Amino acid sequence: MKKFFSEFKEFATKGNVIDMAVGVVIGGAFTAIVTSLVKDIINPLIGLLTGGVDFGELKAILKPAQLDEAGEVVKEALTLNYGALIAAILNFLIIALCIFTVIRTFNKAKAKLEAKKKAEEAAKEEEKAEEEPKEDTDKILSDIRDLLTKMNEK
Q1: d(Cα 98, Cα 42) in Å, to the nearest integer?
Q2: Sequence-ordered list of residues with C-beta below 8 angstroms from that of 38, at least 6 positions apart, any chain
Q3: Distance between CA atoms of 58 and 47, rounded to whole angstroms?
Q4: Predicted local confidence at residue 135, as pLDDT
Q5: What's the confidence (pLDDT) of residue 142?
Q6: Euclidean distance between CA atoms 59 and 79, whole angstroms
Q7: How high is the pLDDT of residue 131?
Q8: CA spacing 20 to 30 A to 23: which of 13, 59, 85, 126?
Q9: Three-point CA angle 114, 118, 123, nearest 5°
Q10: Which one is predicted more confidently, 73 or 134?
Q11: Domain limits, the chain
């Protein structure tokens, strides 16, 4: 049992689990934003384009409601709520498009940042490579000078 808890502690304190927990929290906040975008902005625009049709209200009545003599509902109607499915599919597609756009933008920014870092590293390597031969050349020239001086002394 002790080993189990020590393994669990090791697992729970790894960076991946903490990163995942942060992702879940941020994902929850992002979901609220996207849900509001869909519900408050996009769905009313779709309703405007479709002549005010609310997909969530579309249904096929399989068995009508039973009413008593006073006209009150005794038994609810049996309905096939296909409009709710259409609305859920539309919401999914809109949310997926929003998430795709955010991730695509993030990946492009990340790629640009990585390219910039690689360019900076390449420039540093090139600068370093240019400095090294100069030092070697100076040493070789000084060695030649010293050898010539020794030869002239003889």
Answers
A1: 11
A2: 91, 94, 95
A3: 13
A4: 61
A5: 85
A6: 6
A7: 65
A8: 85
A9: 150
A10: 73
A11: 1-52
Give the tokens for residue 27.
Answer: 């994902």
Q: Are strands 66-67 and 73-75 parallel, antiparallel or unpaired?
A: antiparallel
- Which tokens sit at 101? 């756009």
The 10 Å Cβ neighbour count of residue 35 is 13
- Tell whether the model's pLDDT for residue 145 goes beyond 90: no
Angle at 44 between CA 39 and CA 46, to 5 degrees: 105
How many residues would you count in the chain?
Answer: 154
Q: Are 64 and 77 in contact (CB under 8 A)?
A: yes
Average pLDDT across the chain, whole number: 83
Q: Reduced to 3 states, what is the DSSP secondary structure of residue 154? A: coil
CA-based nearest residue to 33, from 80, 98, 90: 98
pLDDT at residue 35 above 90?
no
**pLDDT: is 140 or 129 the higher one?**
140
DSSP string, 56-117: GG--EEEEPPEE-TTS-EEE--EEE-HHHHHHHHHHHHHHHHHHHHHHHHHHHHHHHHHHHH
User: Which residues make beta-bridge pairs with 78?
Assistant: 63
